[in-house]
Amino acid sequence: MFFSIDIDDGASIRGWLAPDNPSAVPKILVRRPGEDDIEISATVERPDVRDLGVHSTGLVGFIVNDAVVAGLEKIEDIELLEADSGILIYRRFQKGRHLERKFFFFDSSIRPIEKLTRRAKSLFTLTYPSTERYGFETMLVLINNGFNKSIFMSGRSSFPRYSHFLSNAGFKTAALLGDPFEELAQRLILLNLIQKSDASHMLPQLFTGLTTLTGFARDLPLDDQKGLLAKFRLLTEEEREALTSPMTKMFGCIPGETLNRGRVSAALENLSSMDLVGVRSRFSDFKALLAGLLGHDLTDDYEPVVHPSIGALADRLSRISLVTDLLEDDLALYSFAEESIGIALSHDADAVTRDTQTM
């Protein structure tokens, strides 16, 4: 999908949208709080877009004006979405409410911090959680959206794949890392639970990139140490690949690259280039530093709590050598990161103490 907003002069919003199907006439949803969505189709031919090769006819231009939405000029909170995918393409910037920031939060957890996402929705004009769901071309369009100056993105996307584009587009970046055994336990428990629920059909959307593990997780004996060991001994190559050090892949590899020992160093180097890196075991420190980076507290009163079932499974997994081997790179990465963050915070605290004593 490609799109661009050309102008919003209050009385009208004009732009174009080329859907994934290059011959389809795009449809746009106009959304306002408390009102039914309005669906419109492109009515303006754009030879310039056709000549770019992203649409076969160029019938991609649209106009939202008072004929579409009565009183458009006075409506502050209005959104435009691509009708088929539901991807947000435009929302009006509200001065005094929205931050003039572009921020990407790389969260290695399968379960995003919901409070952070909700808070981001109110503080940023455009928000894109779970970015791992989007294809490469769509991601580049979202990142390089020059019309909007307030954008929040988060997810398990590959940092090496997008770091250059994010830097060029003026994004601040932050990462939050979790204990590898706890992260794996959470993934297995959630995959196991959702397959037994009425939402099992949503698994590909909820757990992008992890559907390879559905068969493995479905009948996993979560409370049986010997049963767990037996299941891990029967892993297929595809399942093994999906389980092997996902955090190192996220920060050290472009999708499709082979994981090797050098990738831990690459991941650490990439993390060091980010504006902020934290670990869940020191979340209060990460929270304070993130608030300083953005000028606002995104996490509100959230504190990470490890559910007893996740903690118990993480402990069982940590005592299985096959699992330790699968997570070898992630365990090294997390250990290095946690130690480095601890040292950095300790030095900062010492510096504050020295400054105070000399006053």
Task: Provide a descriptive summary of the structure in words.
The protein is of the alpha/beta class. The protein folds into two domains: 1-92, Immunoglobulin-like, CATH 2.60.40; 98-359, 3-Layer(aba) Sandwich (Rossmann fold), CATH 3.40.50.300. The protein contains 15 helices and 13 strands. α3 (136-143) links the parallel β10 and β11. α5 packs across α13, α10 (246-252) packs across α11 and α11 (262-272) packs parallel to α15. The protein starts with a strand and ends with a helix.
Rounded to the nearest angstrom, the distance between the terminal CA atoms is 58 Å
Whole-angstrom Rg: 23 Å
Helix proportion of residues, in percent? 40-55%
Question: Runs with pLDDT <50, length 5+?
Answer: 350-359
User: Outline, from the CA principal axes?
Assistant: globular
CATH topology of the largest domain: Rossmann fold
- Largest sheet: spatial strand order: 10-11-9-12-13
CATH architecture call of the largest domain: 3-Layer(aba) Sandwich
The number of distinct β-strands equals 13
Strand content: 15-25%
**In terms of structural class, how would the helical and strand content be classed?**
alpha/beta
Total DSSP helices: 15
Instruction: Count up the domains.
Output: 2
Task: Report on the biggest sheet.
Answer: 5 strands, parallel
State mean pLDDT (0 to 100 scale).
91
CATH C-level category of the largest domain: Alpha Beta
Order of helices and strands: EEEEEHEEEEHEHEHEHHHHHHHEHHHH
CATH superfamily of the largest domain: P-loop containing nucleotide triphosphate hydrolases
